[in-house]
Write a structure and sequence with these properties.
two-stranded antiparallel ribbon, about 60% helix, globular
């Protein structure tokens, strides 16, 4: 009889390997570097997009972010890259998890249009710092981690699947493959007027076919390779066709003059210069308690609550999805070093406010790096270093159009969707909450909304079936908080804070 083979424990090959547990997690330094580069490319758009969201809004005193009488986009871009780089490196070194952080989309628009217009920019960023500090306290006291552990394992799977569909939707929308109609009963449509038009969409389609082809052919570095090749194609297309950007100017009424067939964000072209001096004028521009004097105690408290709940659960969903895709979660769907991940994320929220660039949070685009092989914090260190480099090499970052980077998100969305088989669809107590979680994330463009709807439905169905004893007390509490979250606008009117 043949002797059974003894399973050997992988032996680290270096101090770097031992520190990040690279071999232990079935990865390699090469894969981690590649994964970190891919994550950077799929989320580098935030360095360009965040200034466009924050930079043109005037506060209650008629000032732009940074304290000037005119928009200071370079300073916002540099601050965005600085905080993203530092916090992503901290995530890699402290939490050893392949998760990158940057200014939270959605939250930045909320800060700009719903908060800063009622007070000064410094006051608004002070609210963001305050929100981050409160979340950090909730983490250090164990409350945030306890809530995470109270969530049923199959509901965590639903969160991962929902996020998969969400990031696939992000990819399709950012590429212009799917567009908002803005009129009529149908909210979205294929391309422009139901047809695919324009060179950028064609470049995206080619990139999507390329990344799928390379992936199924098991080509090493498929995602990174597809981004590089598609970017080259995009540069050639722009040089010949002169497509130009989507926004080509402003109308007399102040609205954007739009070219619907243009590039969504970056126009691919060889840069005139490679380096640029970073401007950090927004760093330190915050006033911790100024908002309470400007907006009032109740209104400021409600704004902090809204920011906090969104940050609180977005990261829970994101880290669960990333851990599941990387095969790092335990049987209960919990990633390794959960407490450390949440600590870094909480610090990042406050750091974003302190740097004047809005709350920083974990990015689901990190899944693209995981799809490329990232399994450890080394990938995050690589991504963070690239963010820091982008402060001076911003012209190089701007040559990669969304249409070349986002095909990776569609592929990763598919990979995350495969987890759906782990949900028991015959058990209505979990199937209906899971269904609501999955569909509402892409349909509402919000991770928080999907999680909230799933939590409320789970508690409600259990209660209807007389199984209240099986509901974790924290699930009751969190579901009640989500009810308040969904009713925040009527609540503001009742309290006179609207």
């Amino acid at each position: 009889m043949a002797k059974a083979a003894t399973k050997r424990t992988p032996v680290p090959t270096s101090g770097l390997d031992r520190f990040f547990k690279i071999t232990e997690r079935g990865s390699s330094v090469e894969r981690e570097i590649r994964g970190g580069v891919v994550t950077f490319f799929t989320m580098a758009y935030i360095v360009v997009l965040n200034p466009l969201i924050l930079g043109f809004v005037k506060d209650a005193n008629g000032q732009f972010l940074g304290g000037g009488a005119a928009p200071n986009l370079p300073a916002i871009a540099a601050g965005t890259a600085l905080v993203a780089g530092v916090m992503t490196i901290l995530m890699g070194v402290f939490a050893n998890f392949p998760l990158a952080l940057a200014t939270g989309l959605g939250l930045n628009a909320f800060v700009a249009f719903s908060i800063a217009t009622k007070m000064t920019w410094a006051d608004a960023m002070g609210l963001v710092v305050l929100e981050g500090i409160i979340i950090l306290i909730l983490v250090l006291t164990g409350f945030r981690t306890a809530v995470f552990h109270a969530v049923p394992a199959q509901l965590k799977i639903a969160i991962s699947v929902g996020i998969g569909l969400f990031i696939a939707m992000i990819g399709l929308v950012d590429a212009g493959f799917i567009r908002r109609t803005g009129v009529g009963p149908v909210p979205v449509e294929l391309g422009v007027g139901g047809t695919l038009s324009g060179w950028p969409v064609l470049v995206f389609a080619l990139g999507l076919l390329l990344v799928i082809g390379l992936w199924v052919a098991k080509v090493r570095g498929a995602i990174l390779l597809s981004i590089v090749i598609t970017t080259v194609v995009a540069i050639i297309v722009e040089a010949i066709a002169k497509v130009g950007p989507t926004v080509v100017g402003q109308n007399p009424d102040g609205s954007n003059k739009v070219n619907p067939l243009g590039w969504n964000l970056n126009v691919p072209a060889l840069p005139e210069k490679i380096v640029d001096t970073p401007n950090l004028a927004t760093v330190g521009q915050f006033n911790l308690f100024g908002s309470f004097g400007k907006a009032g105690l109740v209104a400021a408290a409600l704004l902090v609550f809204t920011l906090m709940l969104a940050d609180f659960f977005d990261t829970m969903g994101t880290m669960t999805a990333i851990g599941a895709e990387a095969g790092l979660n335990d049987a209960e769907g919990t990633p390794p070093n959960t407490q450390k991940i949440l600590i870094v994320d909480s610090i990042a929220a406050a750091a974003g406010g302190a740097a004047g660039v809005s709350s920083n949070t974990s990015y689901i685009e990190s899944a693209s790096g995981v799809g490329e092989g990232a399994r450890t914090g080394l990938a995050s260190v690589v991504t963070g270093l690239l963010f820091l480099l982008s402060m001076v090499f911003a012209p190089l970052v701007k040559i990669i159009p969304n249409e070349a980077a986002v095909p990776a998100l569609v592929l990763v969305g598919f990979l995350m969707m495969q987890q759906v088989k782990g949900i028991d669809w015959d058990d209505l107590e979990i199937a209906i909450p899971a269904f609501l979680t999955i569909i509402l994330m892409p349909f509402t463009y919000s991770i928080t909304v999907g999680i909230g709807a799933g939590f409320i439905a789970y508690v409600f169905i259990k209660a209807v079936r007389g199984k209240t004893a099986s509901i974790h007390p924290l699930m009751w509490l969190v579901s009640a908080l989500f009810v308040l979250y969904f009713a925040i606008d009527p609540l503001k009117r009742i309290l006179g804070a609207g």
